[in-house]
Fold this protein.
Amino acid sequence: MAKNSQSIQAIRGMHDVLPDKSSLWGYVENHIKSVLSAYGYQEIRLPIVEKTALFKRAIGEVTDIVEKEMYTFDDRNGDSLTLRPEGTAGCLRACIEHGLLYNQVHRLWYLGAMFRHERPQKGRYRQFYQLGVETYGMASADIDTELITLATRLWKNLGIDNKLQLQLNSLGTQEERSVYREKLVDYFNGHLDQLDEDSLRRLKSNPLRILDTKNPAMKTVVENAPTLMAYLGDDSRAHFQNLTDNLDNLGIAYHLNPRLVRGLDYYGKTVFEWVTDELGAQGTVCAGGRYDGLIEQLGGKNNYAIGFALGMERLLSLVELLDNVPVEASVDAYMIRVGAAAEKQGLLFSEKIRDQLPHVKLQVNCNDGSFKSQFKKADKSGAQFALIIGEDEAENLQVAVKFLRQNLPQKIMSHDAAINLLSTHL
Ligand code: ATP
Ligand code: MG
């Protein structure tokens, strides 16, 4: 049979999380879950694939995501499907489909893989993970405040609050935006020579997005553009004022950024982002806003919605910058067995330990080898204790316990005494 010796590699921009990193993921995820539960949020689990039409309708036809970033394919029935590029559309689709939005209030979260066909670089991948937090049915700025407070608490708990800056803006209502849009188009039409190719295109399709340009050559023209704040009506203005009053009361710092527009079309009123200057070009870690209008747009009854999405890889990169990144040992105790009788007895003893001390992480050496080679593995495992059974110990129903991280003498004892010792130390 012909053999192809070349190994198959992962898809560009899609990464493995190897065991040496997965414990950090677990650590961050545990913090996330405990903060979410402290605010009474519930998990919702959603499909990874949705009908393409959902994203086109929700995110908007002339956004970067829909225009050029989606993984779209026809399935065997000829239906156009898409790997989710974000979670808000699917979450809302599910809530409308299952009637969760009638006279109800919801606080939801999901954590999972998203897919965008972008140019892979640090902090920008083709498969990446987002925590999405979405709330429905609440009009007042108190829920806007709650989401910001919740995220701020998470940054504090992870010890990265001094690395992130909160930026805030209001996008007003659709009507307010359309008045502003005309002013903005007038302004940019007077400065066409300063716009890049992308912005010239956006000028026709989605002029607000020009404000979000990352092109340094356009800095001045964007900075001098009229801002939306001046075109907000009373209601939008009051909502925003309530939010900033609340944040002032809670002592949460923010920076008003009149050019913050977000890349998705569904936002209105409050928008916010946490940015850092410690991760290079990909500095937005978490972003969100209000999207009241989207529910109707997806076929539901007019209602209120606000949420945010947090990029997990960027969050982890920030946590990794800390001086003492917490790592949890995966093994507490390591069992060494030499000789046929010891091997048999060791298996029984290891199960007895797991029966009585279910919290202890016990690894049993399953490659036979000399004491010396097994000791090396015990040391490498990171365990605190080696439990050693040789011929003599097996014969006497005993075990030798060695402290691997402390300079103490090795002790021979009964199985029960060893269990006692483990339970006092672990
Ligand atoms: P950016 O301006 O960085 O492209 P975006 O506006 O497209 O971000 P959102 O759709 O709002 O981002 O997603 C929310 C968060 O998800 C981002 O702030 C970021 O942390 C993360 N994120 C978005 N796209 C990627 C990606 N391709 N790889 C890794 N993380 C991403
Ligand atoms: Mg993007």
User: Anything to note?
Assistant: The chain has a mean pLDDT of 95. The longest strand covers residues 106-115. Residues 64, 263 surround magnesium ion (ligand 2) (CB under 6 Å).
